[in-house]
Amino acid sequence: MDAAKVMTKHKAADDFGRTFIDLNFSLGATQSFDFLGEFGFERVEALPSIVRYRYGDIEVDICIGRKSYELDFEISRGGEKYSIQELIRITDPNAARQYRSYAATTQDGLKEGFNKLRDIVKKYGRNALRGDPEVFILLEQQRKSWSREYALDVLEGQLRPKAELAFRQKKYSEAVELYEKIRSRLTLAELKKLEIAKARSRS
Fold it and tell me: pTM for the full model?
């Protein structure tokens, strides 16, 4: 087939006028991921940027970003959707940190991207695809933990400079209050400042 015909352009509704190049994504996704049938999944939707499979209350989406052209795999159960990176993280946090979505803007790139994504799904997603409830419990716990850590990251960024300023200005009671809120993130030097601020706030 003529590549120029395959790479027809479709307007993305959310793309503010930018065109989305259709690389015949749905056909490639179907060819690469119909192995999901081995787990009982049936293909229920095939669109230019998403192919969806379903088995019972579990859904799987293989998609491509209309702006980024990044390939992604998502699995959902009970209304909660999890990315392939989250699946990787529950068994190999280091691999999850190193994982980057593959961006495909040509047919050859799309084929290579599908191969890589399929291999990752087979390696890290088998238990989830089987509907193992323990996997989804771990995914939920991991997400809650990540949310707490992210909230603490934000709080740390806001309070650390305020605590440092309060300490320098000898506002020790204020410094103690601020440092205590991010105690788990304090350095050894900051813990020492906290102890000093506590002692001086009582004097």
Answer: 0.64
